[in-house]
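Sequence in, structure out.
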Amino acid sequence: MKILFIGNTRLGDAILSTPIINHYNAKKNNITVICSPLSKEIYSNFSSVNKLIVLKKKKRGLHWLQAFFLLESVRWDLIIDLRNSLLSRLVRKTKIFRFSGKNIKNHKVDEYCKFINLKINKAPYIPANFFLKNSVKGLLKKKKIKIPILAVAPITNWKRKNWPIKNYANLINEILREKKNFFSSVVLLGSKNEKLFCDKLKNNINSGNVYNLAGSLKIMEIFELLKMCEFFIGNDSGLTHLSAASKTKTLALFGPSRDENYRPWGKNSYFIRTPESYSQLVEVEGYNRFDNESLLKTLLVKDVLKISLKIISKEN
């Protein structure tokens, strides 16, 4: 079956949509994926994905025109369009699933599974990459990063949903002070643009075993690294969903985003949010999306520490 999959552009959404592509990941299927440079690493790992068309957004939707000319001139057996795009209306097809995503009450995983009529929800899943797994093992050995590892992704691409760096520093220092010595190393994760923020955090952690890996690893390398970690903590971000998909114990910090839609999914996934709901933070007079001030300041270190220690102490 020839399938055209028009995927998500953002990392977190791409990860949450993997139950769909995993459902169709069979030898009999030949899948072409249209995605962004950020999400391509997630989709490319599925064995039935034979072609990737990576698009960068252009003005006036011209990227869809670009995609149209890059596609095979065939009748697709199935189109799965997560972007509700013009493209899926132009190409020939036998069957189509077109996602509207208008239900704000359900989790994205619920929505995606219902979208393709799955009777039982599937969890986000990313195939393993054994070459990268061995590469990451070599990196840990080279940098002398010892297990058990605490992984932290303290920065997102939206400043309003970042927990303050000083709070992360206080939290990590409290965890490392625990008599049980839960962790031998701390790794800080993020993009190249987040390296300086992670350096600031590193300088405020009272340990010589903190490693700033921001900007030095690709997405799938981070995924393989997370599988080797004992615990992950981060804001509502793509790396948090990556950690949840790795089945590592994961704690997400929520403020100006909807946990009912985007909480990390899976057995070892947890979240804590500000005392204020999404509506109380965002749907209020004077709210400015482009302000630089964090909306997670009311989420206290002592509360995050309490739930962190509870999760860390749980047996897998």
